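INFO batch 0412 | record 1 of 1 | parsing
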Amino acid sequence: MGAQAAAAPPTARQSPAQGIALYAGGVFVLCVMDAMIKWLSADYPIAQIVFFRATIGLIPTLVMLYRPPGLEALRTRRVGAHLLRGVVGVIGTFGFFWAFAVMPLADAYAIGFAAPMFITAMSVPILGERVGLKRWLAVLVGFAGVMIMIRPGGEASTFGSGGAIALLATAAYALSMVLMRLYSRTETNASMIFYATLVIIAVAGVQMPFVWVTPSWEDAGLLAVLGLLGGIGAIMMAQAYRVATPSIVVPFEYTGMIWGVGLGFMLWGDVPDLWIWVGSAVVIASGLYILHRETRGRAPSPTAGTGVPAS
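INFO prediction complete | emitting tokens
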């Protein structure tokens, strides 16, 4: 869930209602995609699902290049920077896909909501940002919420059943967003998304001769649809930033928990336990506070989103 895309600069014509509808709709689309990933992971290797997701998900991005400045938006002199983001994206994408396969969607989402805490912490050494005491306290509270959810060492710990992988994927996603903020000073959003996706396609592609499972026609259709849903969901969320500020739309990232619980229950009978609910409430409260502090009195950050990346 969530879009691995930087927010575009808001246009002069602001429409909060439209922005909320686009963002919440994008979250729903990506949650459906994540459920399809979990469903298909029972029969197909993660690398194959990632390959379809990245390859077909690139189509909507390419279609957008028909708008000015077109292919000029892909021009870059920072190949190394794009390669680094791509490698980080590989870790985040494979990590979340693996977490979706082995743990309930809602549990993975709840851990993924820790992204704002990681982003805040990483922005200090990488971007040189100054973070006040209140935001650091919010980060610590958020990590306490994560510990409540994964309960490392406890009898009901989720740490060894996907929680550790989800946490690693969340950290990788946060690093990708911080790098996007850093590189946005010289690179376009389109180029950062495009080249990072190419790296993911390449890493998944080299594994295809070794892990390929020929899908049925029905499953091939599902693999194609999930790729398109990923691209469409990311575009919807990026467009939401054009017509509304992050402080208005980003809180609707947390509607993913509703869809995650609903889809998980309907398809697999999964119900989050009490500690997931308690921990996710703590993490969400921390994330909203950090968002409030970051957007108060300054221009919205291009990485103000809170949620799980476009998987």
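INFO post-check: The chain has 13 helices and no strands.
INFO record closed
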